[in-house]
Every structure is written in C-alpha cells, then in structure tokens.
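Hey, can you fold this one?
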Amino acid sequence: MNDGVTRGAFAVVWALILAGQWAVSWADEDGTVRERAMTEDPGGNVFEVMLRGGVEDSEEALRGARIVVRDRAGQAVWDEFDRGLHPWLLRSGQFAGKPVVLIGVRKTTIFDPVVARRPFIYSLRPGGKGLRKVWLGTSLSRPFVTADFANLDGRGDDELVALERTRSGGLSLGAYCWKGFGIEGIGRTEELDGAKEMRCGDVWGDAADEVVVKRVHEGRWLFEGFAPRDDRLVPCCEVWATPNPDLPVIWGLTKPGDGRPRGLWITTGDGNMRVLRFRATATTE
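Sure. Predicted structure:
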C-alpha cells in the first residue's frame, strides 16, 4: 500500500468489497477496474465482465476503456471490445430471455451525428469468448444519465430502468421491457427535484426489486424507492441520511444473502458503515 493512503481510505475500500459493491475501483496489473458484473454464457457457465482502464477527458467522460471477460479462475478469455466505442457503464441482468450485459457507449449514429450515450445490450458467446448483439439502441425515449436492470414485477425477465434527462434539464425515471426485437416503455416518473444517482435492488418487503434514487435536499440525502403502478413508477419507500460534508460518502444497496437486513448501506471516509432500513413512503396510497 502507498504510504500516502490513509487507514480511513483503506477501510472504505475494504468495506465496499465486503458489501459486494461491483463498482469498486482500484489499480491492478492491467489498469483500473472501474466496474464488474457477473453473467452466464448459454451453457450456464459463470463469467465476470469488467470495465477497465480508460481516461477521463475535460468533460469527465471516460474514453478508451476496455471490456474484459474472465472465467471463474480469473483468466481473461476475451478482450476485443471496440475501445473506440468508449464504454463507460456496465450492468448485468436477465433480459430478452437470457443473461445479458448492458454496456453504455458514446458514439454517433447514421441519423444522429452528435456523440451521445447509447445503450448496447449483449449476451455472452459460449465459453465467454465474445459478445453477441441482443439490442444496440441508438437511445432510450430520452437522453439517459445511467441505467440498470431491475426485476420490477418479481417474476420473469428484468426490466431496463434509466435515470433520464427531461426537456427542462432535470432528471426522471423511465422503465422499459423487452418487446419482440426492441424495448417498450412501461412507466416513468415526473421530474425528480434534486435527483443525483440511481441504483436497483430488493430493498422492500416483497419479491420485486425497487429503483432507488438519491435526491439531495438542503444538505440531506433522501433515498427514495420506486415501484411500478399502472403506467407509472411511484414512490413506495424511503430513508433519509445526513452525510458529513467533510468526509467522502459512498452508498449501495444490500444484497440477498449478505447477512444484512434489506436496505441501504452507507460508509464514510473514517471507515464507519451503517445499514439503513427503508420505511413506507408517507405519500403511498
């Protein structure tokens, strides 16, 4: 360890590893591992897909990163993703009837000459030796900031959920299901004041996943869970936190089987970790 790394910083990284948060970053022999996701090939063999390396430009956009597939022994079996697509986001789920990975890329298209974030969905080839196209989307219904898979109805395939930019410049949620050869919108929210981040997981007392959005209000953080109702995503649960403004704060959602109650974990630069339980949203009908 570098002598300049504090014990507190080390504690934060170690806490993240224990919490199973795949978006941990650290240096290894092949550069920075920015995100990890687990998925399967058609034979049910488990592989780890990694977003590695790259550099951030003046606008904090990741450029030239790699997508690497490793087997369970930790051996790289494929590393030929086009780095010119500038991957910046990696998630895994069950979509279009198969295990898939979502790779966010930055590129132009034939009908859109502006470089923008595009959602590309792939499945693994047998043995993890390559990616097979499932859906290469030019966009969602609106420009998106981030996206993830969530099993919103608690059965069957996941849905694709995105935190999207509205016409007024704010953020709101949009959810999509697989429909034949593409996606179909199934619900959205109104604009969410103070929205900053989004993650998906089972944090409430049912069999389905929730979409959790971090919203900032006068220095406090509201983590608000959303679930589908008719053609909308509506608040169902929430928890508040007051972060220490002098310390870096990282958060994530607890995972089934990790020994913690359903909810949200939050850790600060001093190495302290707390698990917060969600409660029913006051506006839930």
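The chain has two domains: 1-139, 141-285. Let me know if you want another pass with a different chain boundary.
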